[in-house]
Amino acid sequence: MRDSGRQRSEDEKLAQSTDAVADITEMKRVEAELASASAVMRAVAENSPDLVYVKDSDSRLIYLNPATCRMLCGEAEDFLGKNAIDLAGDTPQARRILENDRRVIAGEETGTFEETFTGPDKITRVFHSVKTRWLGKDGEVLGLVAISRDITERKRVEDELRESEARFRALADDTPVFIWQADADINITYANRPFLEFLELKDVSEFTGRGWESRLHPDDLPVVHRVYSEAVRQQKPYTLEIRHRILRTGEYEWNFFKGVPRFVGGQFAGFIGTGVNINELKLAEAKLKESEEVLRAAKERAEAASRAKDKFLAQLSHELRTPLTPVLMTAAALSEDASLPEDTREQLAMIRRNVELEARLIDDLLDLTRITHGKLTLHAETCDADRMIELAVDIVRDEARQKRIHLTADLQAKHRTIHGDPARLQQVIWNLLRNAVKFTPPGGHVRVTSRHGQRLAGCSEPASLLIEVSDTGIGFSSEFASRLFEPFEQGNITGDQRYPGLGLGLSIARAIIEMHHGIITARSAGPGKGAAFTVALPMALDGATGSVPAQRENDSASEPEESLRILLVDDHETTRNVLARLLRRAGHDVITAADVRSALSAAERATFDVVLSDIGLPDGTGFDLMAELRSRYGLRGIALSGYGTDEDLRDSAEAGFVEHLVKPATIQEVRQALRRFAASCMGVEEYGTADF
Description:
Blueprint: H1 2-47, E1 51-56, E2 61-64, H2 66-72, H3 84-88, H4 92-105, E3 111-118, E4 124-135, E5 141-150, H5 152-174, E6 178-182, E7 188-191, H6 193-198, H7 221-234, E8 238-245, E9 252-264, E10 267-277, H8 279-290, H9 292-335, H10 342-372, E11 381-384, H11 385-402, E12 406-411, E13 417-420, H12 422-438, E14 445-453, E15 464-471, H13 490-494, H14 505-515, E16 519-523, E17 531-538, E18 565-569, H15 573-585, E19 589-593, H16 596-605, E20 610-613, E21 616-617, E22 620-621, H17 622-633, E23 637-641, H18 646-655, E24 657-662, H19 667-681
Parallel strand pairs: 12-14, 18-19, 18-20, 20-23, 23-24
Antiparallel strand pairs: 1-2, 1-5, 3-4, 4-5, 6-7, 6-10, 8-9, 9-10, 11-13, 14-15, 15-17, 16-17, 21-22
Helix pairs in contact: 9-10, 9-15, 10-14, 11-12, 12-14, 16-17, 17-18
Domain PAC: 111-163
Domain PAS: 37-85, 164-235
EC number: 2.7.13.3
């Protein structure tokens, strides 16, 4: 008995020992699993882009992952034991974070928070924080565990989206245009305030289903269904002009709508569009149709008036030029006669300059007409700007000398070639110089310079050439600066009628420069303080030498020329007699006629080399005469006329004239034309487009 009891006691001890070993083994296994799980969680925390941190019951950091360290700009040991106020200072942001921590630790709240924190880098970030109370094994509160995600960018985008939506709604509601959105079944899902007010609705919800159809004109409803269905099928934009009934009046008003497809996630979702009330436009169109005949008649009258004006200017030009021709021819010829006394030749040169000035004023009137009708043409070539400037200076030098004005040129541009019409560009430079001399009192200074400038907008040339004409003259006030280049503004701008001229030169200069893709500007410090005009032209860097318009007046009148038998036809007796005398003095055989009939009679009695004829004749035109003489005798001719429009030059060429000289012309110009004619008869081609 005693032995069996002892045996049971030993067996029980062995069993208890075995159970203890098993318990220890299980405990070790659990501890190992917990350690493994802790390592996994730590690895997750260490590699998480979110902020993972643990705080004790006093809200002090006892663990923070690398992402948190990066945000705080330091190492973990720098921040352990610190709370939000320690890290960011006593700010509303830090106090709010501490309050959130306190509520979580106290068990008052567990969940998510939106927290703002400004770190050491002075960057304010917004975080979405999830905080959970941390309990010990015995349930005691140890602190909290938190994960915070940086949502700063998301908040910025959300704020911008809200602002954009608010801005869109404000703009949409304030615009006078209807803005709407509809699904694929024509159900209105959005309408801005103007559209709702027009339809006398308070909210888009009142667009129940497709109840809006009851507001359409019965004739327009089928059109809407057809157009919208086709637009849905093709998923393309559409437009509609339809009528809506106004409830308060019962009348219909026209509206124009345009819709464009709307896609959501790549799927067609309907249309968004705009609309505008066009009822007034429709009423105006109806009235316009009623008055079409009146408008057409008014247009025809205006065109007729314009043609009459052009015809009047052409006739005026002819009547003014014709009596100037004998004066200019005589003065030009005698001013170069070395047998006359010097003072007499100077007086004749003065007469010549004033006649040429009068002719220039007439040319300005015709140029203005050409510019107005877009008919001013350019004959472009490579030009030497310095040579054009020097020639223009020579032309005004005598006038400047008479007024005791110091005229100087300072041409510093190394590259001076430009591409343009040399005659027109010289006209601009001459006009600026002449204005400077005219508006500068005796003893003053006029200076012309050239230099390089920057590339002009819209031009391929890499640089520009700047030509500036400055003076110490009367200047102008800033209020008139914008009107300087307007036609007929000279008197209004200067406020002084002592200065002659029509006020056309600058407006023509601007048109010519703009046709060359350049600009012209003016500046002045004020009345009495002088002025400066600057022309900027694209510069051609091709190394070409360039040319300038020929100085026909300076060509030697004594050059040998072939004697020609000339039929001279002009109804102006003085012009006819003076020109005949000067041509005979040059060695030509001249027969004169005053009209078409006598010219044809002379051609029947004698043979001629060339016809020199006016255009406006008492019993016909020079065109008719030239065509008849060319048909009968194969004659060619040179026109000499006060008519100088583009149409006149074109008609001259068609009639058979090989050249067209515009009165007043000098005897030198006539003789040069005859020399070119003689050269062409010998097979030397000297005529080109520039002659017409």
